[in-house]
Amino acid sequence: MQNTILKNDEMLINMGPHHPATHGVLRLKLKLDGESVISAEPIIGYLHRGIEKLGEQRNYFNYQVDIDRVDYLAGMHNNEAFSIAIEKLLGLEIPDRAKYIRVICSELNRITSHLLWLGTCLIDMGAIMGFPFYPFRERDRILSFLEEISGQRMMFNFIRIGGVKKDVNAEWLKNIKEFISIEFLNRLREYEAIATENPIFMSRMKGIAYLPAKVALDYNITGPSLRASGIDLDLRKKQDYSAFSKFDFKVPISNDGDCYARYMLRVQEMYESAKIIVQAIDGLPEGQIMAKKILPGLKPPKGETYGAVESPRGHLGVFVTSDGSSSPYRVRWHSPSFNAVSVLSYLLTQGGSNNNFNEKKNLRISDIMACIASLDFIMPDVDR
């Protein structure tokens, strides 16, 4: 946008990197014609911490502590993606009990992420009195369950190479099942009654920021944002990691492709995650929780490996190259949030609005918040 020639009614403004609706240190360079967005350029890099380079300077054992911070709302998924990658190098077969515990914890973590997103989404849409903080009540309960077995409320470091850190007891499982199958589902239905059919919420979300399936694939969008555009892709079904093939659950799909569809899919996913958790608790097998105890001196054989999971935001993967030493030779993360930020320019200038997807129409300033909220990206997951 340098040396841009502006017309009489046009102006350049910065949104962020400290704007509350950008969900982190994201800067948008906007060219506006009145309230219409003519062009938008996302500027990232304010939060870069060198998480990939850190992996090349630590051993495999110690690096597990850092990777919770790639996406701080999905620490279980970060741990699992890295563990799967290294387990492939080592040729480890994970005990069934560890697989089931991984499923329980990762789906609990998915719900906590979606609950936080739900509350902040409603804040972005203007519901600043009361309701946005209700989902935090259930999220806090689930974080207490995860803290009980991991010792941490966010940076869990619980899923380890070879299995999980700690076994679970019957009381912990009983409390989770009771909470998830009764209280949580009732609360979720309440939230839907407040938000899903709310006319103000619907007018802010429906028909806004339409993302066609082809464009979503071109930008490598994954997760609920891709499935809201009609593409049936969920690694829990397609890749069958952990023990997901043993559970009966649906992958919500929509062809609407707008902000409202992306909202609905995340809400529906929470219902499905609750079903998975109950089934995993009921079918939890006896046995070991670790295939092999991993010590700091671990030296996987030379080779390349890739581990991926379906995180709350989509395809979260890590590529690792081993040179046979106790530290990775190369680590590269594939983060769904990076791709979500990259598609912002398209959505804000060509996404259409007012339920007319065939006629490309620039969004307005008020639509930017809905667009960002519907994509659910996390800035540390972008900059890494």
Structure description:
The protein is of the alpha+beta class. It has a single domain (51-334), classed as Cytochrome-c3 Hydrogenase, chain B. Helices cover 46% and strands 12% of the residues. The chain has 15 helices and 8 strands. It has helices at residues 51-55, 60-66, 75-90, 96-124, 134-150, 170-195, 199-205, 213-218, 224-227, 235-238, 259-282, 336-342, 344-350, 365-375, 379-383, and strands spanning 10-15, 27-33, 36-43, 159-160, 163-164, 303-311, 314-322, 330-334. The strands form 3 sheets. The chain has a 3-stranded antiparallel β-sheet. The longest helix is centred in the first third of the chain and has 29 residues, at 96-124. It starts with 9 loop residues before the first strand and ends with a helix. The model is unreliable at 353-357 (pLDDT under 50).
- CATH-level-2 architecture: Orthogonal Bundle
- Indicate the low-confidence ranges by residue numbers: 353-357
The separation of the N and C termini measures 26 Å
C-alpha-based Rg, rounded: 21 Å
Order of helices and strands: EEEHHHHHEEHHHHHHEEEHHHH
Would you report the number of β strands? Answer: 8
Choose one word for the global shape: globular
CATH topology-level fold name? Cytochrome-c3 Hydrogenase, chain B
Work out the strand percent: 5-15%
The residue-averaged pLDDT reads 89
The secondary structure category is alpha+beta
Give the domain tally. Answer: 1
Count of individual helical segments: 15
Strand order of the largest sheet: 1-2-3
